[in-house]
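Annex B, item 7. Sequence and structure tokens for protein A, then protein B.
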Amino acid sequence: MVIGISYSQEIVVNEEMTAKYMGSGDLPVFATPSMIAFMENSSMKAVELHLATNETTVGGRIDVKHLKPSKIGETIMIKATLEEIAGKKLTFKVEAIADGDIIGQGKHVRFIVNKTDFMNF
């Protein structure tokens, strides 16, 4: 695993991703919780091939800004780039981009864990 590895995915905003549907707001626009979930997913996918078969990553912190709204049907690019490795702690730069504009950005921290040990909490 090296600094700079990344993962990007394109999503198309649908009704189930809206603030109105999720209950985080009352408008039919891309919900902040949806954006965060895709940012976490992209971060997980950026490193999953670099882990042992008994390892995964779990989210520990996210600090993002949702800068612009997006409508149903709009295509959003979600990107996560590994910026720092500190033992089992991984820090990612996360972005959401629509039509060339950054609509969301921030940092996300994940931790490498042993799947079995983690589930024995």
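Protein B:
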Amino acid sequence: MTVLESLLLAHLLGDWILQTNWQAVNKRHNWRAMLSHVVVYHAVVLAVLGARFGFENGRVYAVVAGLAISHAFLDRVWPVEWLMKRLGAGPRNDSDRWLTVMFDQSIHILLLGLATLILSPRVWL
């Protein structure tokens, strides 16, 4: 399994399966809900990357920290809505709310791709 495939599975586990309803409903406005979600999600990511690259690899911790910060920022929702509006991709009404979720997920996956590149040995040769 590739690094990106492993990160995508970790993402599905952390962002969908292990995220509680309380976290999902409250993380936008409640830092405790956000922090608990980000910690659980990135514990999964750290476990995956640490198993692959070793827990003594400093790049693993730097990548996990970057992903955690960006994840918490994006999951406040307003940054995603702001970007969507600037790109003309925002929801037109309440029934289009799924567009915001898909846009958010797309950004998360792009960041996982960037993390994969950062951790790739070929990038640093």
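Comment on protein B: The two ends are 22 Å apart (CA to CA).
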